[in-house]
């Protein structure tokens, strides 16, 4: 959702965030601009060119315009079916991370410049921040949802936004669904995404609603499984909500043909809160979902600037698969849907892929409660991802610079959450002393999984 609903503002001023903010997104955002300007080029070719021009989008664009035929001929590494014979090549015998947050049992490291292809649900759960359930819905239910979304997607649009001085558009189409009339009005008139209101918000459809309880039940089970098997001491992560995951919105993406894609990004946490979980259902053409860890670095150390420093992991998303993006995903990893040179047409969807992301919007993070910047619009919630200094700290900042014709202001404010991810203004729940009393939030959680209808 947010590659094209997010990005890095210009770093022109001496605003607090320009000194404190992590600087990690510039390469991704530049890549996103490049991908939008040069949809025919592979991500690899675009990255090569950017690096060769010291990160200057302008110089890289000029060079690509000159060299278009030559660079476009370079083979793309992204295929629907990745070629990899063995996982041994990636085995390191070392844990991926020593931070105690990401899967502690992971023993594979995708190496710089390589793509590790994973298909098996156990491998995916162990080596990525996701879990996957194949053949998730009864086939008829999947088909009906697909048919409904294919019809809906005829009127989906590309999201247009401003980055630097360019107005660019997302390389796929999407729209947003909520459940009630009240939510619809709030989304239309109160919520902001990258400093602008969404132009297309719709009432949830019958099939999206029908599938929801099944997604809810499964995601909650997966969360519990993950906590028990992957997190330190079998406890939920700090800032992760102890409440049942209860989706109340669905963001739906449509990728028409292999060229449509979404660049590397993390989803916006503004309305989902810290350590958000997302249930992502794939229908139609199978595509490659890529993830890569964001490596924190010292301020003075530029050696890990390369966004591909640890390589990437490709998870294959066939028709009717549910991918759960777990609580560590948005803060510590980035994800993308890679362009594909060849796709296997789906008998119903043809060359199209539909992706439904069910999301749990938190009532306490409605824009009427969150800080506003000096532009008068709700600020965006972000986390320091790359700089070791302040790593993992949340902050609010202005996103005005993403609205065509508008500059962003210097607004910056550290965000305060308790250990359960409740914002400081949520007086009923926010616990100042949380974490010090040794109360295990899981004990309060109990069996919260949906008893559901299906
Ligand atoms: O299409 C997908 O599977 C991912 C979409 C996505 O990343 C998003 O909507 O934020
Ligand atoms: Fe996303």
UniProtKB/TrEMBL annotation:
Residue ranges constituting the Fe2OG dioxygenase domain according to the UniProt record: 246-362
The CUE domain, residue ranges: 26-69
GO biological process entries: DNA alkylation repair
Pfam families named in the record: 2OG-FeII_Oxy_2 (PF13532), Zn_ribbon_GRF (PF06839)
Keywords for the protein's UniProt record, in alphabetical order: Metal-binding, Zinc, Zinc-finger
Residues annotated as domain GRF-type: 373-418
Protein name as catalogued: Fe2OG dioxygenase domain-containing protein
Phylogenetic classification of the source organism: Eukaryota, Fungi, Dikarya, Ascomycota, Pezizomycotina
């Amino acid at each position: 959702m947010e590659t094209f609903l997010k990005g890095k503002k210009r770093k022109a001023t001496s605003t607090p965030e320009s000194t404190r903010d992590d600087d990690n997104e510039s390469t991704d955002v530049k890549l996103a601009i490049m991908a939008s300007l040069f949809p025919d080029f592979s991500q690899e070719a675009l990255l090569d060119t950017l690096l060769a021009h010291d990160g200057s989008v302008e110089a890289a664009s000029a060079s690509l315009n000159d060299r278009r035929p030559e660079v476009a001929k370079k083979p793309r590494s992204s295929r629907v079916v990745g070629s990899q014979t063995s996982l041994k090549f990636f085995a390191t015998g070392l844990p991926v991370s020593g931070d105690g947050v990401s899967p502690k049992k992971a023993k594979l490291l995708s190496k710089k410049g390589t793509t590790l292809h994973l298909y098996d649900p156990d491998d995916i759960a162990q080596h990525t921040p996701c879990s996957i359930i194949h053949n998730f819905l009864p086939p008829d239910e999947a088909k009906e949802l697909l048919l409904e979304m294919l019809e809906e997607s005829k009127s989906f649009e590309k999201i247009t936004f401003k980055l630097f001085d360019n107005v660019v558009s997302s390389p796929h189409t999407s729209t947003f669904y909520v459940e009630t009339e009240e939510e619809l009005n709030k989304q239309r008139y109160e919520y902001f995404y990258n400093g602008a209101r969404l132009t297309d918000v719709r009432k949830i459809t019958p099939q999206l609603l029908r599938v929801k309880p099944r997604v809810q039940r499964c995601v909650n089970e997966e969360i519990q499984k993950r906590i028990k098997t992957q997190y330190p001491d079998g406890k939920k992560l700090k800032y992760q909500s102890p409440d049942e995951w209860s989706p109340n919105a669905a963001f739906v993406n449509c990728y028409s043909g292999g060229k449509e894609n979404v660049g590397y990004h993390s989803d916006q946490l503004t309305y989902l809160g810290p350590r958000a979980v997302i249930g992502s259902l794939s229908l139609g053409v199978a595509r490659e979902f890529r993830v890569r860890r964001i490596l924190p670095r010292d301020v003075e150390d530029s050696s890990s600037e390369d966004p591909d420093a640890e390589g990437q992991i490709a998870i294959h998303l066939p028709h009717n698969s549910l991918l759960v993006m777990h609580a560590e995903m948005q803060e510590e990893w980035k994800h993308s849907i890679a362009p594909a040179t060849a796709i296997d047409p789906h008998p119903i969807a043809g060359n199209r892929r539909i992706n439904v992301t069910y999301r749990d919007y938190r009532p306490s993070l409605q824009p009427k409660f969150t800080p506003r910047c000096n532009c008068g619009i709700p600020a965006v919630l972000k986390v320091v991802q790359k700089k070791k200094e302040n790593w993992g700290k949340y902050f609010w900042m202005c996103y005005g610079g993403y609205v065509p014709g508008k500059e962003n202001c210097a607004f910056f404010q550290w965000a305060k959450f308790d250990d359960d991810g409740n914002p400081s203004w949520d007086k009923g729940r926010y616990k100042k002393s949380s974490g010090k009393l040794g109360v295990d939030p899981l004990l309060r959680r109990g069996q919260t999984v949906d008893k559901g209808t299906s």
